[in-house]
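tool=predict chain=A
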Amino acid sequence: MENANNYQFNIQGKELTIQREFNGTLAQVWRAYTDSEILDLWWAPKPWKCNTKSQDFRVGGRWLYAMVGPENEEHWATFIYDQIENESLFSGKDAFTDSEGNENKDMPASHWKITFEGNVDNTIVRNYCSYESEDILQQFLDMGFKEGYESGMSNLDNLLKNGI
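tool=predict ok
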């Protein structure tokens, strides 16, 4: 487990837990994770960009987006929401797709539960990610998941500093 600057990254078996503290109110951080207009500003690691095609933030709804690279290459993904508790948690399936949201069964998928705990000025976000196997989790890590995720978190830090 790594623990620096209120950041923890822990792998245990086929589960990954990431905890991060942000200098922002619960309402600000919740909105940053659940509003596609704000997600598009920070979700992708630079120089990549996130472009939302659609978002229906409700149980059974989904977020369909592309990670767009510097050469305009697109990698599509979706998050299908299976649980939402306002300003507390949401969870769902994360998967690679085509531009229409059809899951790419040749690529690994995961289940995420994201919780939010806020006080006056700070919010702790915990990501619980589970994979079908340790090998699939390793495949995500080999694709640069950790580095990309950390880059996105830095992007969100910068947005919060600027008062989103």
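The chain has four helices and nine strands. The CA atoms of residues 110 and 131 lie 5 Å apart.
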